[in-house]
Amino acid sequence: MLHGVDVSAFQQDFDTDGLDFVFVKATEGRSYVNPRLKSQVKRARDADCVVGFYHFLWPGNAKEQARYFLDETPAQEGDLLAVDWEQTGEGTRASSTDKDRFIREVKRLRPHHRVLLYCNRSFWLNHDTSSYAGDGLWIADYGKAAAPRIEEAWHIHQYTDDPLDKNVADFSSREEMRAWSTA
Length: 183
Hints:
Elements: E1 2-7, E2 21-28, E3 32-33, H1 37-46, E4 50-56, H2 62-72, E5 80-84, H3 96-109, E6 115-120, H4 121-126, E7 136-140, E8 156-160, E9 165-169, H5 174-181
Parallel strand pairs: 1-2, 2-4, 4-5, 5-6, 6-7, 7-8
Antiparallel strand pairs: 1-9, 2-3, 8-9
Helix pairs in contact: 2-3
């Protein structure tokens, strides 16, 4: 298992010691860009971590949000892309159809990047109607690392948010994860 974190503007600083991968929040909706995006990406790249970017999906306008995400994300070949599908701060959520449209549009526009779905266990079990996760499922289910309580295959497991979002990835090495990300 590889170890990683996902960060947003709330993490002004994070330690890369012992990390194999870092996902950075890039965008949200159609108007927000993480003000720490560039510095967080630089920190991850300087540590030779596999880099991923995620977009927090809002209801509606899924294709437009996908284009906004890609326009604002400094992704390079081999970087991972993900959609963060969960409840918004306003208590709403994008539909399963919106999630699918977003993933398909990102895959259409960036066919040489792996695109993942991030969601929590409740969304996967209770709101997903298609079981579509693009190239892989990144599941949040807090508890024991590498033991999410789902039956689906997964690539990344977020197992805690204390003191920040910690994840494991089902790869034996960074090289294996990098090779998968560019396939």
